[in-house]
Here is the input.
Amino acid sequence: MERRSGGALLATAVAATGLVGAAAVPTPAADTATATTTACVMREGSAHTDWTGMSWDADILCDNAQGDVRLQSFTSSPVVGRMVTTRSWFVCWKVGDQHAGGNNIWYYTQADEVVSRPTAKGWGYMPAVMLETPQDPVPGLPKCSWG
Here is the structure.
């Protein structure tokens, strides 16, 4: 599903997920004709190691909505962190709960802020609806080895 039609569609989808408060939903640009979406960028040599010791040597950098990062890829999973930046990196994807984006793809990342379960260090999943991607899963991004 392509979500490149601007902030209004993303804001509507994010609000429908119930994953973030209304204050965190991005506001559409006043002049949507001039609003642009920055493409996701693959970054080789961008090393990350999660709290379990799993490592990656590449990621994607994509525009995203601010919101919850969940321990697992389902909507009832505990929130372990919060993404406060609107351009973030993600290391892999997996299948999880269906979400407002019309699919069941979730992206693994490390939150900007840890809000619970400090041993997880903010590592968890954001639903694809929270990211501005050309398609889901993002071409070239690996599927998480455990999912």
Observations:
- The radius of gyration is 14 Å.
- Helices lie at 7-17.
- Confidence is low (pLDDT under 50) at residues 1-35.
- Residues 7-17 form the longest helix (11 residues).
